[in-house]
Amino acid sequence: MPAADSSPATFRVSPEERYLLEAVAHYTGKTMSAFVREAALVLARKVVDDAGPEAVLEGDRQWSEKGKLTVEERRAALEKQREMSHDDGR
Q1: Core-most of 21, 28, 67, 74, by most CB within 10 Å?
Q2: Of 24, 8, 27, 7, which Cα lies nearest the Cα of 16?
Q3: In terms of residue numbers, what domain contains 69?
Q4: At what angle do helices 32-51 and 53-65 cross, to 10 degrees?
Q5: pLDDT of residue 71
Q6: CA-CA distance, 40 to 46, in Å (whole number)?
Q7: How many domains does the chain have?
């Protein structure tokens, strides 16, 4: 659940991508943060309008489920780590 107030969102860009974003942001009289935030929100709202909120929520749910382990898989992974610790003399 999102925080009640603003929270940072970070991402990586190459030096060239950063320069492009900064240059265009400054050209439009905005900070890079404001420019990227506004551009991302415009695109996100367009995707929701085009695909529909239910499709977006389902895509988000599927993304969130990727890579999740079942309880049994977690238990097995923990047990394997425990065995490795004992093998190392810990």
Answers
A1: 21
A2: 24
A3: 15-87
A4: 110
A5: 82
A6: 10
A7: 1
Is 2 within a domain?
A: no
Q: What is the pLDDT of residue 52?
A: 95
In a domain, 8, yes or no: no
pTM of the model: 0.67
Q: Is residue 82 part of a domain?
A: yes
pLDDT value at position 57?
94
pLDDT digits (tens, 9 = 90+) for 6-56: 889 999 999 999 999 999 999 999 999 999 999 999 999 999 999 999 999
Q: How far is CA 79 from CA 51, 70, 90, in A?
A: 43, 14, 14
Q: What is the pLDDT of residue 2?
A: 56
Distance, in Å, from the CA atom of 26 to the CA atom of 55, rounded to the nearest integer, reads: 35
